[in-house]
Every structure is written in structure tokens, then in C-alpha cells.
Amino acid sequence: MKFTKILAATAVAIALPVAATAQDWRAWNIHPEGYPNSVALDQFAADVAETTDVSIQVFHGGVLGSQPDAIEQVRNAALEVGNFNLGPMGPIIPMTNVVSLPFIFSNVDHMHAAMDGEVGKTFEEAMTAEGIVPLAWYDSGSRSFYNSKRPIMSPADVEGLKVRVMNNDIFVDMIAQLGGNATPMAFGEVYQSLQTGVIDGAENNYPSYESTGHYEVAGFYSITEHLIIPECLCVATAAWEQLDAETQEAVRTAARASAETQRQFWAEREQESRAAVEAAGATVNEVENKVAFQERMAPVYEGFVAANPDLAPVIEAIQALN
Ligand code: BDP
Q1: What is the mean pLDDT of residues 280-294?
Q2: What pLDDT is stored for residue 79 in this prediction?
Q3: Domain spans, the chain
Q4: How far apart, in whole angstroms, are the C-alpha atoms of residue 195 and residue 197?
Q5: What number does the ligand 1 atom closest to the CA of 202 have?
Q6: What is the CATH number of domain 143-227+279-320?
Q7: Does the C-beta of 140 come closer than 6 Å to ligand 1?
Q8: Which of 190, 192, 186 is nearest to 202 (CA)?
Q9: Residue with CA at minimum distance from ligand 1 atom 2
């Protein structure tokens, strides 16, 4: 309950200390209004306003800047809240790279089992220590390739393609192993780069392929499902530590409820988005032999484990859940 409301209700006349938890927070979001993540963030802000003295203003559509910058800002508490994909978090918090390994999860249920269990807790500790507290895990489906040139059926079809990836060397390596050329680029720049031919393609889930309009300029979507990357609803550790235990509990409860909402809307939106892009003329193709793509990723894993031997047990823990 809001401290100010209690004061008003009981009409206490004497000067009481201001609630230590009164805060004004800003939330970063890359997606437009109405997107499942945006709906969930709006719900989160409303619930938090209802139950605590924290007020959160959500900024949709990436108006507060690119995702790599926003992650840094939350880490430095220049921003308080963000819905982040763990892909671009890897360069900042190495453990999170594990979920950016291609085909690490065999499906979305596998990802949920990991993030909602012990693996998620391990991530939570590592991230909190680095300045970012994940309050809940959002869904991001699986990412597949799309491009303006041709349907991708086998790794050979990726050869020579210029493909935009999120900011993380693992994705650059992933494309290189398929014979393509990767360009890390901010999400907001992809449409124009596709349109002008600076890049031939990119990779994402159906809802982002649709919401960005990328299907208009890169009409071949090929279901490789090479990445299944969780997203977090995150708060700056420094801001989090300003809250008393009761407020933290209320904020966490709101975050969990928002994740439930997000996952529900996500499941619906995936179907709607696929139908929408196909109705608009995009060509979606199944990829029969995904193993051919998976096998090409062996050097990505070898290089990663060689550079991060301490993370091998996390990879094994995830694989054991499959
Ligand atoms: C979307 C993620 C978003 C990323 C974007 C991207 O939800 O966080 O910024 O992909 O490709 O699916 O950059």
C-alpha cells in the first residue's frame, strides 16, 4: 500500500519521515506500443504504481537509445528499468553469452525449464553482481533467418549473404561458420539497411520481423530456429537496493505477473505475425535439415569453451535439462 495513502487516510498531522522507497524510474523498451513486451511493461508499471511508492515511466519504441547503450545505462543506474534480450548483454556480462550459443536450447520449453530453474538463478546472481537484477524472464520465441535474395534451405544458401546480427561476437562467428558476412547493427537501423542493400538479411522471431516491417524489404523467411534467447525484465542493482524489503517483494510480484502476461500475449502474437507476413506476400519456408546448420556450429562452441572454460558447467547444466 502507498505510504502517502496511509498518511492521507489516517490524517496524521505530525511530520513523519518520507517513505525511503519513493522513486521515479524510467523504463527502456525497444518495441512499439501494443507489442507483447510493451503490454507487459505497461502492466508492470501500473501494478508497481498501485502497490508501492515507485513510479515507472515506460518509454516504448527505443526512444531512449539503442539496446547495447541502454544495458550499459541500467548497469550504471543512469536508467532504472529495461526489457533486455540476453543476446546483446553478453559483451557486458559474460555468463549471459551461454544462451546466445546457437541451438543451445532445443525448443522454447527447454529454455523455460532452464531459466525458471537453477540455471536462471545462476544467471540472476551473476547479473545482479554486475549491476543488473533480472526480476522475471520474458519469452522471445526462436529466431530464424530472413533475407531479400532467396529462401534458405541449407547452409550453402547463406554463403555470401550480408546478415545483420545483434551486438555480440558469437553471432558474428555463427554467420561466418555458415559462409556469410555478419554486420552487428542497432535494431532501429535494420529496415533502411535492408532497403538500401547495405545488408541482404537479418534474423529474428516472427513478431519482430512483422512489427518492424522487415518483411516488406526482405521477403524470404526460413525457419532455421537457430537461436532461442530469453529476455529479462531488469532493474538497476543500485536502484533495487534503494527499496525496502516489502517494496522489493511487491515489485517482484508485479514483474512475475508481467512475465505471465508477456508469455501469453507472445504465444498469440507469434501466430498472428506469421499469418500477417504471409498475407502481405512474404514467403515462409520450413528447413528440413536443421541438423546441417547445427553441425556447422561446433567451432563456435569449441572457441567459446576455450575462451570461457568456467562457463562449460553452465552449458552442460542446460544440455542436461533437454
Ligand atoms: C528482438 C528483441 C529485441 C532485440 C531485437 C534485435 O526482442 O530485444 O533488440 O530482436 O534483433 O526480438 O535487435
Answers
A1: 98
A2: 98
A3: 3-139+230-271, 143-227+279-320
A4: 6
A5: 11
A6: 3.40.190.170
A7: yes
A8: 190
A9: 85
Q: pTM of the entire structure?
A: 0.93
Calculate how far, in angstroms, residue 180's C-alpha sits from the geometric centre of ligand 1.
Answer: 20
The string of DSSP letters for 203-263 reads: EE-HHHHHHTTHHHH--EEEEEEEE---EEEEEEHHHHTTS-HHHHHHHHHHHHHHHHHHH
Residue 82 has pLDDT above 50, yes or no: yes
Cell numbers 535474395 correspond to what residue? 149
Question: 229 vs 66, 101, 272, CA distance in Å?
Answer: 18, 9, 20
Q: Given this chain, do its domains 3-139+230-271 and 143-227+279-320 carry the same CATH topology?
A: yes
Residues 6+ apart with CB under 8 A from 283: 151, 219, 220, 221
Name the CATH superfamily, with its identifier, for domain 3-139+230-271: Bacterial extracellular solute-binding protein, family 7 (3.40.190.170)
- For the stretch 220-264, pLDDT in tens is 999 999 999 999 999 999 999 999 999 999 999 999 999 999 999
Q: Check pocket membership of 30 for ligand 1, CB cut-off 6 A.
A: yes
* Chain position carrying cell 552487428: 184
- Alpha carbons 321 and 18: distance in angstroms, whole number: 48
* DSSP letters for 16-30: -PPPTT-EEEEEE--
Rounded Cα gap, residues 28 and 95, in angstroms: 22
User: What would the pLDDT profile of 160-206 be if each residue is shown by its tens digit?
Assistant: 999 999 999 999 999 999 999 999 999 999 999 999 999 999 999 99
pLDDT band of 10, cuts 50, 70, 90: very low
Express each pLDDT in 105-157 by its tens digit.
999 999 999 999 999 999 999 999 999 999 999 999 999 999 999 999 999 99
- Protein residue whose Cα sits closest to atom 5 of ligand 1: 187
Q: Which three cell numbers stand for residue 100?
A: 546466445
Q: Is 85 in the pocket of ligand 1 (CB under 6 A)?
A: yes
